[in-house]
Amino acid sequence: MPNTEIEPEIEIVPCLSDNYAYLVKSGDACAVVDPSEAAPVKAALARKGWSLTHILNTHHHLDHCGGNLDLKRETGATIVGPGKDADRIPGIDVGVDEASGWEFDGRKVKVLEVPAHTRGAITFVIDGNAFTGDTLFLMGCGRLFEGDPQMMWTSLSKLMTLPDQTKIFCGHEYTQSNGRFALTLEPGNQALRKRMEDVEAARARQAPTVPATMGLEKQTNPFLRPDSAEIRKSLDMEGASTVAAFGEIRARKDKF
Ligand SMILES: [Zn+2]
Ligand SMILES: [Zn+2]
Q: Distance from the CA of 134 to the center of ligand 1, in angstroms?
């Protein structure tokens, strides 16, 4: 019987050069989120003594689903991904969306549709843990490959409705570079300065910066703060709309 009173155990699995996959263990079930490659995931499963039952994909980019077929062949795991992008997810078995949600070992999993990085991008929320792929990074957000600033702002606003204590597990270790960019826009943000000290220290010992809470993201992530007075002043866009300011932040980060 699943015991949903106990929080799922989450194991961070570094992949490729700066990707993260995550193992999520609940009872006899174990899911991997965004396996870019199979080998490090298999090694982590062996180390923990866990058997893979599910593969979850936030979007179709190969650095998030490149390990799907190999892991499925070896373990028989069920692949769950965005229903709207089913034709682009290798080996998909179950397509999900906001209306369907999903269930994992008796836990209700919230699926948020967050298009813009890709048009089918989703975030899985398992208990208080949000797996945001390349939509929300720590102190950053994904590039707008298949959407515009309005679409990404709408998607990030949806993520911001999650409780502040929600833990954000994102797809890449970009936090240090994101934070350095954030400081160019908001050098007077004390929470940001303090956080960057922690991030620099973690990276100096090559420790992951994930996860962080949504509350901390709201205080320090410039992509969630386009209406901050200091950011508006840095952009010289004090009278502009929220989406225009957001678009300018994204454009500046592209050149950073
Ligand atoms: Zn991507
Ligand atoms: Zn990626």
A: 5
